[in-house]
Design goal:
By secondary structure, the protein is of the alpha+beta class. It is about 60% helix and about 10% strand. Strand 8 (about 465-475) and strand 9 (about 480-490) form a beta hairpin.
């Protein structure tokens, strides 16, 4: 029979969160209700942009052109189809001119031009049956979407003898935003019931299963409120809503799993409810807080990048991680105080066993111990440690090899599903119009210049490889600005176009020049990421080394954690290139392969996946460290840690993967890649790295795993953290293996 826990009574923090549990939960309910109100309409305030470096040359040129030459930067295109007649037919031209005048009279529309006004061949299709009206909607993205929603019903469809379709960048971004919003709602409807079923399977008790799910719902609602507040302070990407909602749900469930499991373990060992809550907070609660910090650090590394897309994920991600941890450390203990032993109520496994007429015992009459399977796996891996270490590492490296062929580009209309209205318009423009309007480069010229100097610059630029035509200069109203339009050969963002951007920027001129356009934005974005990536990696690595040292007191384990976490991401990056760049499985998954990846997405996926890997790593290492401190037996501690956390980590990973796969059902290709890629990374980390590679490597390093020089050892004794409350063992005989207290109640080992 287990001894009753006679440890110290709950301390200050425990008294704070458990003194009035009913009041705590009531306050939480009120705050959650307020979050529902505060988070409403958040998607309408989020951005589809943010991919550009605000300080880049292309960004400066784009803003100057928007200000001085609105017609040079159209974001709205009306595709006019004249049916069987030519667009030059007098009746067609008259109707099209009236349509152009109507658009120019709309509030918020500037820089209206059309084929019938300019007779530009670039605005007329090759067969002469279609032509374009181009314009710019003023204001930020939110204002532009409102204008688009207002005018679209008036201009789309039959207009006399003409048929009009609405397209352009603003239409693409608007449709992408609405699609993501719809997909996120569907993902939540998929993920929540599946998650509940998995939690019931893990805990058996329906009551225990509802606790993590309830925390996840609170995290989702709180996430939306946080994002709504962030939109008042900075630009927040619409993609952040998908990922941070998934992180909020997944991490809240992870942390709740860890805390509820420890609480049930303490109850099974005979502790009183208040003592069980206190011990849980001092041990599992401490680990949850530490884990949240490691995830937040990985996400914080994205703040070094200038792109608002990445920075918005850093701000939102840190807030969501801290929200999930706060809910787990404040709301959950209060709920556990009220439930007590009823946390094990409604054990559905008992009903199933009765239905089968079995008792759940083996032939010997002894209770089954499924958790022992993790112990047997650990023993097998450590007996063949060199084989498992080499084979697993080599396999992960092979899976990552496709990433060596990664190509980077920009997001465009092909992110949308094939039947999306704005995508159809863009594809028709690319197919039917020579030179693909909007796909070239623009050169902003500033400062006084003579016509001869302009002509000389145009001639030299037109002679560069990859240039088909240079139009301009078009003078500005102030007389201090002009711009040239450069038409390209080949793809608008291909390697040739990117090289041409560099050539034009290197071309001398008698005036100041700035180059923009899709290829120029891509070049600047790649340069900004390449410049800041070493700093981001340094932040992640150095802080991870410090945090893991504080947890373990070892010099070697932090290095192992960084290397093994990096290996766990290879499969994600390899699969991302093989599937989403190269197009394998594109038919099955329902997306269009573009031959490249958006430049910022690999950075985002690395930071998030690395943080989640550390999340699971902390869970495992904390239990290994606790057992090693207790007995000093290295191999037993590794086996014990895997036996205690193997089922927990696997269950948490599967649940988080379900959430990510639900996100991956999105019809927007980048969101699909984000969700499915992170799901793969989570599963590989939990089922391969934590189950095989970690115990194999720790067996090979032996007791040297725990070595640290004297000054660092003393530093850890003073400032270090661990889940266990005993100090490190100094040697002597190891204690006998400790049987899992609640294995008989928890066949998943959780």
């Amino acid at each position: 029979m287990s001894e009753v826990n006679t440890g110290p009574r709950p301390g200050g923090w425990t008294r704070f969160v458990t003194a009035r549990p009913r009041l705590s939960l009531l306050i939480a309910l009120v705050i959650t209700a307020l979050a529902v109100v505060a988070g409403s309409g958040v998607a309408d305030r989020m951005s589809n942009g943010g991919w550009e470096d605000p300080g880049a040359e292309s960004t400066y040129a784009t803003k100057a052109l928007e200000r001085e030459f609105p017609a040079s930067q159209p974001n709205l295109l009306l595709l006019v189809d004249s049916g069987s007649r030519s667009v030059d037919d007098p009746a067609v031209a008259a109707e099209a001119k009236r349509l152009t005048d109507r658009l120019a009279a709309e509030k918020g529309i500037v820089g209206v031009g059309s084929y019938w006004r300019t007779e530009s061949p670039a605005l007329r299709s090759a067969d002469g049956r279609e032509a374009l009206i181009a314009a710019r909607i003023e204001g930020d993205e939110t204002a532009a979407f409102k204008v688009l929603d207002r005018i679209t019903p008036e201009f789309r469809g039959e207009q006399g003898a003409l048929k009009v379709s609405v397209g352009g960048p603003v239409a693409v971004r608007s449709e992408m935003q609405s699609t993501i919003q719809e997909d996120l709602l569907r993902a939540e409807l998929i993920a929540l019931p599946v998650t509940l079923v998995l939690l019931v399977m893990v805990f058996g008790s329906a009551v225990a299963a509802m606790l993590p799910l309830g925390l996840g719902v609170v995290a989702i609602l709180g996430t939306n409120a946080l994002l709504r507040g962030l939109t008042e302070l900075t630009e927040v990407s619409i993609f952040a809503q998908n990922l941070t909602t998934a992180l909020g749900l997944g991490l809240a469930i992870d942390y709740a799993l860890f805390i509820v499991r420890r609480f049930r373990e303490e109850l099974a060992d005979g502790a009183e409810v208040r003592d069980a809550v206190g011990t849980t907070l001092r041990t599992a609660g401490r680990t949850v807080l530490f884990s949240a910090l490691t995830v937040a650090v990985s996400l914080a590394a994205m703040m070094v990048f200038p792109q608002p897309f990445l920075r918005s994920f850093a701000y939102a991600g840190i807030a969501v991680v801290l929200l999930a941890a706060a809910a787990a450390l404040v709301l959950l203990p209060a709920a556990l105080m009220l439930l007590g032993h009823r946390v094990n109520a409604l054990d559905l496994r008992k009903l199933l066993r009765r239905g089968r007429g079995g008792s759940g015992e083996g032939k010997t009459g002894e209770a089954k111990e499924p958790g022992a399977g993790w112990g047997r796996m650990a023993a097998l891996v450590m007996r063949r440690a060199p084989f498992f270490a080499i084979a697993t590492a080599a396999g992960l490296i092979v899976l990552g090899l496709p990433f060596l062929g990664a190509k980077f580009g920009t997001a465009d209309h092909r992110q949308l599903p094939p039947g999306a209205d704005s995508r159809v318009v863009q594809e028709e423009i690319q197919r039917a119009f020579p030179g693909s309007p909007g796909g070239g480069l623009e050169v902003l010229a500033e400062g006084a210049a003579t016509p001869a100097e302009y002509a000389d610059y145009r001639t030299r630029t037109a002679a560069l490889p990859g240039v088909t035509r240079v139009d301009g200069p078009v003078p500005g109203p102030s007389g201090e600005h002009a711009y040239f339009a450069v038409a390209l050969k080949g793809e608008a963002v291909g390697e040739g176009a990117q090289e041409l951007v560099r050539d034009i920027r290197a071309e001398p001129a008698a005036f100041d020049t700035s180059v923009t356009g899709t290829a120029a934005v891509l070049v600047d974005s790649k340069d900004a990421i390449a410049e800041q990536l070493p700093w981001a990696l340094a932040i992640i690595v150095l802080v991870t080394l410090l945090l893991v040292f504080l947890l373990t007191g070892s010099v070697l384990i932090p290095v192992q954690a960084v290397v093994l976490n990096a290996l766990s991401l290879t499969a994600m990056f390899g699969a991302t290139v093989w599937i989403f760049q190269d197009g394998h499985l594109s038919g099955l998954l329902g997306f269009t392969a573009t031959g490249d990846m958006e430049t910022t997405l690999p950075v985002l996926m690395f930071c998030v996946a690395f943080g989640l890997s550390m999340d699971y790593g902390v869970f495992l290492l904390s239990r290994i460290k606790e057992e090693y401190d207790r007995g000093g037996d290295h191999e037993h501690a590794v086996s014990f840690g895997l036996r205690r956390t193997g089922g927990l980590i696997t269950a948490a990973a599967v649940i988080l993967a379900v959430v990510m796969v639900a996100i991956g059902t999105s019809r927007v290709a980048n969101t699909k890649m984000l969700g499915l890629g992170l799901a793969l990374a989570v599963l590989m980390d939990a089922m391969v790295v934590r189950s095989l590679l970690v115990p194999a490597v720790m067996k090979l390093t032996g007791k040297a795993t725990w070595w640290a020089p004297g000054p660092l050892r003393r530093f850890h004794e003073r400032f270090g953290l661990s889940e266990g409350e005993s100090r490190p063992a100094t040697g002597g005989p190891a204690e006998p293996p400790v049987r899992d207290r609640d294995q008989d109640r928890d066949p998943a080992g959780v």
